Amino acid sequence: MTAGRTRSRGRARGAARALANGLATLILTFIGLTAVTFTIGRVMPTDPVLAVVGDRASQAAYERVYLEMGLDKLIYEQYFRYLGELANGDLGRSIMTSRPVLEDVLRFFPATLELATIATLLGVFIGVPMGVWAAVNQGRPIDHAVRVFGLIGYSVPVFWLGMVGLLIFYGNLGWVGGPGRLDVFYDGIVESVTGVILIDSAMAGEWEIFRNAFSHLVLPASVLGAFALAYVARMTRSFMLDQLNQEYVLTARVKGAREHTVIWRHAFRNVLVQLITIIGLTYASLLEGSVLTETVFSWPGIGQYITTSLFNADMNAVLGGTIAVGTCFVAINMFSDILYKLVDPRARA
Fold first, then answer.
1. What pLDDT digit, counting tens, does each position of 275-330 carry?
2. Are 20 and 127 in a shared domain?
3. Predicted TM-score of the model (pTM)
4. Whether residue 79 is found in the same domain as residue 212
5. pLDDT tens digit string along 214-245?
6. Contact 176, 169 (CB under 8 A)
7. Count of domains forming the chain
8. At what angle do helices 272-288 and 207-244 cross, to 10 degrees?
9. Sequence-ordered list of residues with C-beta below 8 angstroms from that of 195, at least 6 positions apart, any chain
10. Is 59 part of a structural domain of the chain?
11. Which keywords does this Swiss-Prot/TrEMBL entry list (predicted)?
């Protein structure tokens, strides 16, 4: 009885310690992210005051806005002031849109989330079987084909692939929708609840708008997903080759286990933890690296919002968008850690 209580208390202390370490890591990561982003935003060769008052403002107006923005203070004082505002959920006001940055982030981020999620799903559900198939058929034509496809998909510039896709599948064949998330005719008909048009139109029962949104999403998601597919397929092949050469696989085959069982129940289960890491990093990279895709397809996502804000010296918007993407990156990593423990009993121990 006493031993059982001791083990329970030990588990409780271990869980509390793990939770405390996770929170500390999250806080330190967030502080580091904001510090680096804020410092880069302040040392960039742009004048945020001119972005507000314009080139023809008087010196008095310039100095007034300069003081209001707190630019007369030392950079660490500006940073602590920004942290205080951030703690209250205030990311400042965008010069470009004249709206609170938080409102802009909530408006633009779902478009990027929708695009990156579909691209990641394409990469996972096609790339993982391709990688396994290539590993099982090592040295055969299918293996060479997957390796060549992975090399091409990982090397071809996204903007070039996007423009070629628009020219062929939209301009010449008319199989998919063009730039943007919707045709102009359908814009504003469906009320934005989640910010994801496919979900909002389905909830509203507007299936014609759903089809139109899907036709616009197919090409950019496929272009972005080609990178994810190539990377996931290459890494899956590498992981599976390592496991298929282990002694336990040879033992299972000698004992008469079916090949399907050897591949999926034994070898594939041992690469799941590694695959979770790869998929998490791929998803996070698509969220933060979809700027070129959003630019080519005029996709109104957070990447295009940050880029346009940067060109307009709208540093509040750049900082807010970067923090949103960085926070999502950290959240994906934490979720991957949770999945580790669900997949691998050794991680729970």
1. 888 888 888 888 876 777 888 888 888 888 888 887 777 778 888 888 888 888 87
2. no
3. 0.80
4. no
5. 998 999 998 888 888 888 998 899 898 888 88
6. yes
7. 2
8. 140
9. 106, 107, 109, 110, 111, 113
10. yes
11. Cell membrane, Membrane, Transmembrane, Transmembrane helix, Transport
Task: State both tokens at 127.
Answer: 């790339």
Same domain flag for 205 and 77: no
Residue whose token pair is 């091409």: 152
Residue that the structure tokens 């790339």 belong to: 127
The token pair at 147 is 């390796």
Domain end residue (candidates: 87, 113, 132):
87
Q: Amino acid letter at 111?
A: A
* Closest to 189 (Cα-Cα) out of 181, 203, 201: 201
Residue at 95 is within a domain: no
Place of tokens 């759903």: 210
Q: Are residues 289 and 316 both part of a single domain?
A: yes
Q: How far apart are CA 108 and CA 117, in angstroms?
A: 15
What range defines the domain where residue 248 resides?
101-348
The token duo for 330 is: 């950290």
Q: Does residue 222 share a domain with residue 183?
A: yes
Cβ atoms 133, 232 nearer than 8 A: no
